[in-house]
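Incident log, structure service

09:12 report received: a user says their structure output differs between two submissions of the same chain.
09:20 pulled the input from the user's history:
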Amino acid sequence: MAKGRIYTKGGDGGDTSLLGGERVRKDSLRTETYGTVDELNSWLGVVATELVDGDLAGEMQAIQARLFEAGSRLACPAHQTEAYKLTWPGEAEVGELEAAIDRMLDVLPERKGFTLPGGSRAAAFTHVARTTCRRAERRLVALQAEVDDPDLRDIQIYLNRLSDYLYALARMCNHLDGVADIPWKR
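09:34 re-ran on a clean worker, output below:
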């Protein structure tokens, strides 16, 4: 049986295809946005390897699947979404993140002031994912200003809530690992 090839050489000239075949530069705002979501998803894969709690690991896998859907939607012009039967995170998924945040905060000690990234290894990786999520959101806000695509607002809200979730998760990782959060001191 012949092995499939993963290289197409189609991007050797500095452009890539969106879903539907439209060619765009690899440094376009759209590719930068879905590329940053892909980077975030990779960081979440690292976080998942560090999670000691099975429920949190399962939750992370569901979030990764939703981010993959979001990335697919970002790689698709609005007029092509129905042809590809795309779905993306929306209000229900934002509600799931909010419920998970509340569940974690109910367990964690109250924290006032800013927390420095770090503590346990899992928490440190989660903070990297959180800041990558913030960057993905900034890219998406810029993309929304450039294209007329109201569906992108759903993804932007999801990313905003996901960064809050990742902050709570970093604190939860420290809690589960028996490591104190690092308070910022002037």
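09:41 both user submissions now match this output. Likely a transient worker issue. Closing.
09:42 reviewer note: The chain has a mean pLDDT of 92. Strands lie at 15-17, 23-25, 115-116, 182-183.
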